[in-house]
Amino acid sequence: MQFQKNGQRHIWLLAGTGEGPTIASLLIEQGWKVSVSVVSIQASWPYSEMSLTSLCIGPLQGVEGIKGFLDEALNEHQGFDWVIDATHPFAVEISSNLEKACREFGQNLLRYERPLEAPSRTFLIKDLSGLSNCSLQGKNILMALGARHLHEAVHAARQCGARVFARVLPTPESLKQSLNCLLPEDDLAVFRPLQGNQIGDLERALCRRWSISDVICRQSGGATQELWQDICHQEGINLWLISRPKLVSKVEVFHTFNAVMGRISISK
Prior knowledge:
Helices cover 35% and strands 21% of the residues. It is α/β, with parallel strands linked by helices.
């Protein structure tokens, strides 16, 4: 189903990366009404001072939940001109659900993705199980993956004879999952990335304190991956990246803000 908006210029932005607030600000500057969805209270903080039409917090309930949200918007304010998927590159389930729901609803959808990078001194592995084939005997490994995948990562690295350290977020769920991995407290650092007087000082200090030889993180792009790339290059540390999953999708994908703005301006 397609419908006319009678001049309505309204976008639903689903944001799961640091680029979300920038996209929202650009849209507002260009005169769009913007509704934003994020998954947590913490993720909503950067939007608190923006003149959004609405800010939704919490997970969406699958394809039917997304279609219900679109239908509610259609009834309340003639719906959205565009839905922009700016969720995390590893959040493949929500991206897949969005594509299916928008296709069935007849809703315009595009995706913003950070560009892929392949820096030097970097090793790509398909998933965490790939660590079992790596030569990590006697290495000191720093996991910068997030607590949800930490248990699998710790097990795989220990199977290879590595000593494992981890940096996790200061949330109750992250702490609970981290402690379940049976990591000694002295081998666990709890803080948010990109903090400190100088960005990267905390991460660099951890690497030196623990004599880290290898860092493992996800190929998600953005500031965090760039930070680890810089630190590993400067400190002579190997960087292992879990390859970004490939979406089987027919959705238009754009890798720059200008490309996104150019595409939606066509519909004005």
